[in-house]
């Protein structure tokens, strides 16, 4: 083909208005769009534009078929060989994706996902102590980025600042007692400090603010431009009393971090939910249909015939503690060790004492065993074209 013919590829295409082309393209999966970038320069320009990336993401987020449960399968050495993506409509529809930055040694874990980007960490042990590596990854575009090194964290979250169109990683870290061994330490002996990574600057900075000393889950839930951690506070008489009674979970609330204004706040639990939390062995914060949810589990019976009573609570009006409502309560004929959150169709994934993952359907009240091993880490992710290039 001559150069003149090559330069007029756009003239060979049907003469559709650009807004019609955009409406068609935004409905297509990412794998098709990446191929269609090569059709002509005008299509490449459309697909690469930030406006189209945002339009495609908004459309993708509304379609349940574009949401996936990503399962990071770990080997015995805790290194990911592959990532399995389960489609929302069929739990048996799995596709394998190689992890481009997988290394032979290290402990990998998802931090969270936001707008199609996945944040995950790797903890490796060296002669000088523990080493933390962090990655950002869009598994649909097959692009990833290694985040500059930072300190070891005791709590971490990943979210999106809509005002500055920037993605941020927030680390809260503390100094632990001499008898503790990270990452199993639970009781910090100093005031927490905060660092923030910004994708736009590709750098970390310290945040000068007061953060109460607390114990919390390492990862956060991102909703309404806030990161949420469920926390148990230290230096509280009620906590001390509960610890004396052998109930270490104790008094709790939800710590919020506004990703835009970069300030911390607290969200209270309702009195009924607080009473439930205080007698539960497992308490996990999650998302259910874009609502903040709390999953609790309490043991009943004695070993070896120990069972669990579980309950699911949601905050129906965000920011209103009185709107906490119990949706479900059910019995499990095993000891529940943890919750992985909800699938796209509302099923609850949990880990039971036999080192198995179980899925509970609130509609049918039935338990199933999905094709997920215990040696895996899960996160929900939406298909998107979001770039990892600094803005």
TrEMBL record:
Name of the protein this chain belongs to: F-box domain-containing protein
A Pfam family assignment: FBA_1
InterPro entries from the UniProt entry: F-box-assoc_dom_typ1, F-box-assoc_interact_dom, F-box-like_dom_sf, F-box_dom, Gal_Oxase/kelch_b-propeller, SCF_F-box_component
Species per Swiss-Prot/TrEMBL record: Eucalyptus globulus (Tasmanian blue gum)
The F-box domain, residue ranges: 10-55
CDD domains with a match to the protein in the record: F-box_AtFBW1-like
Highest taxon listed in the record's lineage: Eukaryota
